[in-house]
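dumping this here so i dont lose it
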């Protein structure tokens, strides 16, 4: 089972393994409060792609394609997340307030489809 959650939301017992998938540490969050089981910085979009996107909704379709291309160029990019999933439930954590337009949503979609890029 794979879930998404903002890293600022309180941890819960049904989160399973809590994996942060942002490149930068979330502002104002203490590490002990995050209760992470992993931090996969390389799962996040490149700094160049993140800056280009700037959370502009009109760019969302192209952002999705560019981000998937970045993941595809990194053979095995999703392998570590697959290993976590084999162990049980996983919650992907992200900092953005744009839940439906977050790279974590794209990661979840890819993993739900067996990681096909």
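and the seq i came up w/
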């Amino acid at each position: 089972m794979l879930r998404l959650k903002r890293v600022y939301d309180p941890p819960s017992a049904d989160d399973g393994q809590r994996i942060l998938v942002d490149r930068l540490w979330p502002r104002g969050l203490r590490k002990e409060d995050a209760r992470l089981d992993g931090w996969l910085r390389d799962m996040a979009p490149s700094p160049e792609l993140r800056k280009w996107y700037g959370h502009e909704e009109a760019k969302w379709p192209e952002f999705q394609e560019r981000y998937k291309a970045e993941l595809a160029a990194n053979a095995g990019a999703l392998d570590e997340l697959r290993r976590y999933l084999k162990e049980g439930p996983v919650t992907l954590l992200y900092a953005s307030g744009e839940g439906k337009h977050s790279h974590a949503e794209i990661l979840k979609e890819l993993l739900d489809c067996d990681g096909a890029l």
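The chain has five helices and four strands.
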